[in-house]
Amino acid sequence: MSDFDLRYWSHKAADWTADYHDSLNDRPVRSQVKPGDISKQIDMSPPEQGQEMEDIFSDFEKIIPEGMTHWQHPRFFAYFPSNASPASIVAEQLASAMSTQGMLWQTSPAATELEVMMVDWLRQALGLPEEFKGTFQDTASTSTLCAILTMREKALNWKGNEEGLFGQPPLRIYASGRTHSSIDKALWIAGLGQNNLVKIPTDESFAMKSDDLRAAIKQDREAGMTPAGVVICIGGTSIGACDNAREICAIAKEEGLYTHVDAAWAGSAMICPEYRYLWEGVEEADSIVFNPHKWLGVSLECSAHFVKDPATLVRTMAIQPEYLKTYGQDGIINFSEWSVTLGRRFRALKVWFMMRAYGLEGLRQRIRNHVTWTQDLAERLRSEPDFEITTEPVLSLFSFRFNPGNGADLDELNLRLVNTINDDGRIYLTQSNHDGIFVIRFVAGHFDMEAKEMDVAFDTITQIARQI
Fold first, then answer.
1. 7, 14, 68, 336 — which has fewest CB within 10 A?
2. CATH code of domain 1-30+69-84+359-468
């Protein structure tokens, strides 16, 4: 492709992007295709010769958007948001154009130094102490894996990477039953085993019971096991559960355990001082993760991983063959030594663009709107005689179910309800299992959504519920 072609098609793609965002309100939120509908439109074998961009772009427009669930839709109320603000999109285009590999300082000094600065901008925005440093991982799953690996190495006196886990007493990690499945997977990958993730019961506010945590640690030590760390949940995926960070960190410190805070979704809201009560005491933790790509408008992938003592993370993750050494430069940071992957994308650029384009106050107002509008919607549903709020709003997340009081199987009825709502296309919701009952989750967080979208949500939910 010539330079002229690149310029032309880049403009074409930019125009398509703007048109796409302008047209989202007219599209069903969730893709309405059936399994196999997309693949049968794709050639069975790759072409031997290059094809015209006109044909390629035409096929893209004809095939792909119809098969996409539109995460940028203002009525996407499922999972957690995956935003891509316009400023972030532009930055991602520029980063893609340079296609840098930021594994070492010398492979792109600007990528490394901007990352140092942007992590610190976010630290300041969240109100964290200066001692926290950090890096951008791809997702919270990777950030949490790094934390679990650090727990493992610290508990083994840094011998696990060299000697393996053979012959070692089982290492135990503690978390509440409200934590994300990425914690479980991290134990798989770290070689610790699912059975060594100890799920601590939660109290009536869905927070980890501190007395039960103490008892579990004591019991494991007496059984010859090695307690290694605690994962603290702030804003759990299912219902927004929050542990008492200060209380859990105090226990962990007494026991010599590493603490990691999983605030992947809720952490973004901590740019608003009035919501920080949800993670009070977080400054006592050893590491924290939150995802700017969930609620702050930064496009995927961008997970902020803060660590109080970077040396523990580097000692766990760094490997330095000769070809990765940098000579003659003292005090530099090579972020590949802070993460699992060697290859690193230029994630800091979109954070820089996003924070400058909207400012902290612009971002705070969006989050405050989402929280207020969600609480209002919960109250509107609560006032309906045939709806129940099954868990109260935590920030912009709550759960509910339809209960017409006619003796129907409520799990089956609400499964039909959420499926019918999603087939309708006006909004998109997901379900969860809360304490043994089937519930429907609602979470708001689209970057540019307006209050009127909540009216559509209320009308869609109540109308369809009474039709099924």
1. 7
2. 3.90.1150.170
Reported as type and span, the H/E element at residue 188 is helix 181-189
pTM assigned to the model: 0.92
Which residues, 6 or more positions from 457, have their beta carbon under 8 angstroms from its beta carbon? 75, 77, 377, 427, 442
With b for 16 or more beta-carbon neighbours within 10 A and e for fewer, the 308-330 pattern comes to bbbebbbebbeeeeeebeeeeee
Handedness of CA 281, 283, 284, 290 (dihedral sign): positive
pLDDT, greater one: 317 or 414: 414
Residue extents of the structural domains in the chain:
1-30+69-84+359-468, 36-64, 101-345
For the residues 405-418, what does the mean pLDDT come to?
A: 93
Task: Choose the CATH number for 101-345 among 1.20.120.450, 3.40.640.10, 1.20.200.10, 3.30.457.10.
Answer: 3.40.640.10
Q: Which of 171, 14, 32, 162 minimizes the C-alpha distance to 94?
A: 14
Query: What does the pLDDT look like over 118-143, one tens digit per residue?
Result: 999 999 999 999 999 999 999 999 99
Decide if 198 contacts 172 (C-beta within 8 A). yes
